[in-house]
Description:
Oligomer: single chain
Number of helices: 15
Strand content: 5-15%
Bound molecules: 4'-deoxy-4'-aminopyridoxal-5'-phosphate
Amino acid sequence: MNITTSQKLFEKANQFIPGGVNSPVRAFRAVGGTPIFIKSAKGPYIFDEDDNRYIELINSWGPMILGHANELIEKAVADAIQHSFSFGAPTRREVEMAERIVGMVPSVEKVRMVNSGTEATMSAIRVARGFTGRDKIIKFAGCYHGHGDSFLIAAGSGAVTHGTPDSPGVPEGVAKDTLTAPFNDLEAVQKLVDANSGQVATIIIEPVVGNMGCVLPEPGFLEGLRSLCDKEGIILIFDEVMTGFRLSKGGAQERFSVMPDMTTLGKIIGGGMPVGAYGGREDIMNYVSPAGPVYQAGTLSGNPIAMAAGLAMLDYLNDHQEVYLNLDQAGVKLAQGFRSSMEKLGLKYTINQIGSMYTLFFTEEPVKDFPAARSCNMELYGRYFHAMLERGVYLGASQYESMFLSTALEESHLDHIIQANEDSLRAIME
Length: 430
Ligand code: PMP
């Protein structure tokens, strides 16, 4: 595979950008080699600067549910840019976007737009703290909620990939208010709450984790958190930056029928443009300035181009329920295909899959929490990653990531992925 242009670009990037990238996982440090520099993408394919073509399983880490450069979204953006790019003033589309989110996400009654998932989670915990008058938050080891100070304690995704789940630079005073529990361990959460009685403002969770690889909640876990929060007056936040509009029209909360008090959303609602949002119960959201006392603002929030892109995608998803059926079928087909290849090869690695999210973990243990995810063979994942790349499949450059399918994948692409997976597994065993 010729990647000389990517190699040259990366050399230059290292002169001007820390680590040569604008977000750590892109650097390929966990898997070795040079990051692929992307030139363009269309439908199920992504193309690099050396004109190599890959089938996409990252999809901008989630948002490209309809595949790349979807024509509906392109047209919406083309229409919007004729009227300037930003006003810093209210617009019609923001109202439509809020109405659409409230209509689709069952627990959200009011919503505020921001510019990234990080902003959404930072703002949501500020509101939860303001509303309850309490300081502490509980998060789960291996969950990633963006790079806000409070969340860089036992964080997943790039933070753990790069060996800094507890980042330097986070003041001790902030860190002491973040309590962490093991995912899927209700008893541990109860103990934390008991030990910090009356002090916990919020429990924030990825209802289905994408950031230690794809990890599912065990039956009863989310329900247990819901009743614990009800009993203790704690605000339950579902961070649906990855799962919102992906696991169903109404996200993981709809899929699991457990309603949080607040929901954070991200990249998906911009169809790939920089966007985030947080929303929830009306009484809580009315605490947000200027309706209430908790301050949160943004010059570019509700940006007209991002709103146009996101609305086009959400409208499509809202009107085409079959999207979710198709994505679920694609996910199941891949998981089954991977399992039968592994059987053939005498391998017993773990695959976690739900709808259009999956991770193949290089461990034989079930992966239900962070220690299990961390027990994976990272070196093997790195070899597998490159073997897949050589076979034209673009994956997340770390074991601690979920893959994301799009509706642009046809049966032939899924068959290609299944075959590439089998061939790659065989190749790395040699
Ligand atoms: N929450 C979750 C669950 C995420 O997966 C991410 C990013 N992948 C974020 C928050 C942060 O979003 P952003 O990178 O847009 O700041």
